[in-house]
Amino acid sequence: MAADADDIVVLAGKGHEDYQVIGQQRIAYDERALVAQYMGGQCA
């Protein structure tokens, strides 16, 4: 994924949920932490 400094990135996803279900497995997934990691901790 590539976004420039003037781009707006919209996430319409898991939000507050900290897991996702795939088949019958419940897998840890923290969208907020993942975004912070990709943004280098510079979330607006």
TrEMBL record:
One of its GO terms (molecular function) is acid-amino acid ligase activity. InterPro entries: Mur_ligase_C_dom_sf. This is UDP-N-acetylmuramyl tripeptide synthase. It comes from Idiomarina xiamenensis 10-D-4.
